[in-house]
Design brief:
The structure is a homotetramer. By secondary structure, chain A is an alpha/beta fold. Helices cover about 40% and strands about 15% of the residues of chain A. Chain A has helices spanning about 20-25, 40-55, 80-100, 110-120, 120-135, 150-155, 190-200, 230-240; strands spanning about 1-10, 30-35, 60, 105-110, 140-145, 160-165, 205, 210-215, 220, 245. In chain A, helix 3 (about 80-100) runs parallel beside helix 5 (about 120-135), helix 4 crosses helix 5 and helix 5 (about 120-135) crosses helix 6 (about 150-155). Chain A is globular, with a radius of gyration of 16 Å. Chain A starts with a strand and ends in a 5-residue tail after the last strand. Chains B and D meet through loops of B and loops of D.
């Protein structure tokens, strides 16, 4: 049994620090780096790429809606052309820092409202997939396990990877519980570790209302913007290793 | 005798149109496309790249200070790290649209206050050259003829190209007359055409105060943001052709 | 019979010009000035206020979704707190220029996607009304005739004014035909003038599919961002005057 | 002997938190609230005003260069018209939240590079003073003790207040030591407290190179964006009270 551990990083902006990237990055196998639209700026992108390269962690782009004040968590009604062009822009910008550091992008994972919208709205999922196919056709598109994101990616000829979450709770239909509702985040390291093992080893997750549902995922996300992510990441790693799961990056 | 004709294009933003790109692009041999920092947005970048590709015109990046409201014409006191990272970001973003369209960037030309600062401030010139060398080492760096920009580019191992202006007037020291002063712009198509021929054929330009100075340039700029650029471009082309000058893009 | 003529102005940004404010402002009785979120910038706001004061035209704020690249025409899923605070910010900023010029804000009219959303979504209409009531309780809130905007304004104790459009076509339910559909804009000065007279004198408008519906409006909008607005405004004025309609600003 | 204690607050932006405003505000007598240009956003402005009103602390505007990524710490070469209009915009926007909360602005203090530039560049100092005089003629303009900022304010008929710093070190000429140099910040609460007492009681400050210079100040700044500001503020208050200094807001 094998799983990738990914985290959203590079989400500082200008003078404002978010997350604990230097400590977190060595604990995961893939990082999704913000591209300046919902978070991140050129200096942050460059420094984050460098940390990831130094630690041998796979680098991916983490594009989002162009809405800094809203951190990409607010749905923005962009046209297909606007969304595709914004994604090409963001992915290419991050790719520039990766190439300048001598590495290639391994994957792309949309952020926030774009991620959740692409999971259930095929028009948005298709625009995301087309943008990736145009600017980075060989990278892996990460999307919510079982969602339209992955279907749209496959339809565009992309290699896709299904994602599940150690630190977010699930609804009965397999979607993530909205951050606007209580119990959306799983802060307790022990509970996050249990959920990670359930996903990776047992291919199931317990929903917010207490049922077990099946989930098939190649990668598990740990949120870099939340408090306590470092101890949670340590607990998840330890539990996965204790359960005999091989923690390794996505294969290209 | 051979000269490249370049123009700054793709300087619209969102709902706001600047210039007459569709008419101007076929009249030049190289275009410098804004990269979203001082002007341009992802949709504009994509559309402008497409027009240039359709017309067979060489594509270059036109990065500037990240200051949309000031159109990159206000000096911004960025650190070297900030400036380099901003340029890597901008150039890479435009490169993404070029690659998605199946072409390569031919050149890079800084915009506005960054262009004029890099011409006389070696620290800034070096930061520009380093950024280009890191993200696009095979492209041509365009700088003001005789300026520090070109020295810095050569010092970084870049191919450089000296630029002169058909529609801007010159000071006695070979710098451009500031846009804040009267007589900075040469609007009259006939005068711009005369200046273009003087530069390309005779390797000299008449300064604002009436003296002739030598200038050696591989490319001549026509400003895309100014009124009347299309008739001016036509007049310049006709005059150059009449003077036996070969109008052709920069050789890679 | 009396009607106010209003127009959206001050929608330039930085180096980018939109509209023909200096020519249009003398032709209307009220102007809605963009507040820097969807369009406008401090210099534009100041200059536009000055033109309106010089011409004796009533000044209003024209706040929109904070989305410059999208010109406030894309729905943005802001929380109530975010939307209210954004509106207080925008209205207060414009009010500062008005006060510095010695005049008071007469009215407020939301822009673009905020205007159309507030017309049909009571939660958004309430947030708009609350923001106005908090920062400018004595101004007039302009909203689509017959819409929830006006109900929400009245519920907050605001003086409201119903608006109709000379240069937009209507659907059968009294909403504006979407700009994404053909026939949304009425460019022909003669047709716009006819529609203005029908609204002001006859209290009806012919819909896009050819039926007459009733409309009761105190103010008629002429769009400042569209081509041909100046001749259209002249035609509308002339037709209204010819029909014996008194063109005068909203009474405070 | 009487002194005001002021702090820069409201410098969070969107999802990014800066400072510890809720803890710091009760420890000072005046707060300078960021206005959305270098930091702050409408929701942050509103919440910060509310905390200050609840705590009975005097509210001031803290406008800066419109440069979020650079946090207003980079000099931006704005024209006088641009700078004045930007300041009117920022001050008016904050004033809107103050009025909505039922209080008046007491003071205005420029931020970062604008503050230091206005201290030594009379053209910039004049533009700041003119903007304040136009939009808020009755507020107090805070500037560096002994600097051109105060002269320019007086020349515009403004009430001015001289400021000194407890947590920044001074050069021999009475200017602040640049943040780019070592020893610019005084992090040790005991040293900051000593410097505050020297300023308030003894009207002198020891410079970075060890000399005592005179300083006459009505208000002392504690930086809200720095680590350890809360214990530093407590130490400064305790030392001032122990030295018999009356800590009270600026009189209007």
């Amino acid at each position: 049994v094998r799983i990738d551990l990914n985290s959203d990083v590079g989400e500082s902006f200008g003078p404002w620090v978010m997350g604990a990237d230097a400590e977190l990055i060595p604990l995961v196998t893939s990082v999704n780096i913000a591209c300046g639209a919902h978070a991140g700026d050129p200096v942050t992108m460059e420094r984050t790429v460098r940390i990831a390269v130094d630690r041998g962690v796979a680098i991916g782009a983490h594009p989002g809606y162009p809405d800094l004040a809203g951190f990409g968590r607010r749905r923005l009604d962009m046209s297909d052309e606007e969304l595709e062009a914004s994604l090409v822009f963001q992915i290419a910008a991050l790719d520039g820092f990766a190439r300048a550091a001598g590495v290639e992008l391994r994957h792309i994972k949309p952020h926030g409202a774009l991620y959740t919208t692409a999971a259930t709205d095929r028009r948005v999922a298709d625009a995301v997939a087309r943008a990736v196919a145009r600017v980075a056709p060989r990278v892996i598109l990460i999307g919510l396990a079982g969602s339209l994101s992955l279907e749209a990616g496959r339809a565009c000829g992309l290699r896709v990877a299904a994602e599940a979450f150690a630190d977010r709770s699930y609804e009965a239909d397999g979607t993530l519980r909205s951050r606007r509702l209580d119990g959306a985040l799983i802060a307790d390291p022990r509970l996050a570790a249990e959920q990670a093992v359930a996903i990776a080893r047992d291919r199931r997750v317990r929903t917010h209302d207490g049922h077990d549902i099946g989930v098939v995922a190649e990668t598990i996300c740990l949120h870099g913007d939340a408090d306590g992510v470092v101890p949670r990441a340590r607990a998840v790693r330890a539990a996965l290793e204790g359960a005999g799961v091989d923690i390794a990056p996505l294969a290209g």
